[in-house]
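The record is kept unedited without comment:

——
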Amino acid sequence: MPSIGIIGLGYWGPLLVRNFHALLGPNFLTCCDRDPKQLENVQKNYPQVRLTQSSEELIHDSIIDAVVIATPAHTHFPLAKQAILAGKHVLIEKPMATNVAHAEELVELAESKRRVLMVDHVYLYSPAVRKIKQLVDSGELGKLLFIDSVRINLGLFRRDVNVVWDLAPHDLSIVDHLIGRLPRSVATFGACHADRDLEDVAYVNLDFGEGLIASIHVNWLSPVKMRHMIIGGERKSLVFNDLQLDEPIKVYDSGIHVRAGDVEDRRRVLVDYRTGDIWSPHLPRTEPLREVARHFIECLETGSRPLTDGASGLRLVRLLEAAERSIKAQGGRITL
């Protein structure tokens, strides 16, 4: 079994510790955080886990095969680069980096060193998104027409990245996974309220061409919490409500049929509405983060390429950087 070192024990780090500990046991884990209180909290639950306050010490520990990075976004690139240069495989929290140049460097470095580079786009490992991908690929929904996503709550304010970099990677990773290509352009509006330099409300719009558009609303100020995505197709539509634990997916056999008017009234468009059944597919009860950890370990053992590899992380950073440029340009369209 590989030996894993985890850097960062704030919010996400302890969840990673729990899942890797369940899969590997205590003898294969080392945890790092500069805050001794965070180390104490981990030690209470996992007394046999090795602890250190030095990320450099962990990265250069010859016992450790792979490093998991769950630290603030601006630290992802330097820590990941140091780890890959030290010969370690890397699993890194989203976003992979805070600019395209750094993301490209990590991808190239991992390829040259033949190291596994995986990004924790956790939603792609959830039973719900896996089922959605299956339905889209099978043609169940028909040609995709639009994706409309809302991810809002009275949330945790970041000090290093805005709401787009914090929340939108979840939805962007799902959209990228389902469509399989970058959009031809990005246009984003955002506004600052709590901090004049960091947007806390934003609307990201993606144009994929061929009539397919996607819209993502992210917000730290909303009094209600919503995790809602609608995927519209020519044949059927799908609603994914991540907060609806029993039935997160509902497929609607509803839509429209457009037909031209008669010869005497060519400009007239006739729309027939179709309303059919609603059904919710059965989904297994598995924790997405457990599947992330399991997949990372599998890639280390077999040398296979991760589902969310460095290339997928780079695509997301391209979208995020384009969205940020568009915000600064007052919603101007950024061509990719």
The CA atoms of residues 203 and 217 lie 5 Å apart. The chain has a mean pLDDT of 94. The chain has two domains: 4-123, 124-287+318-335.
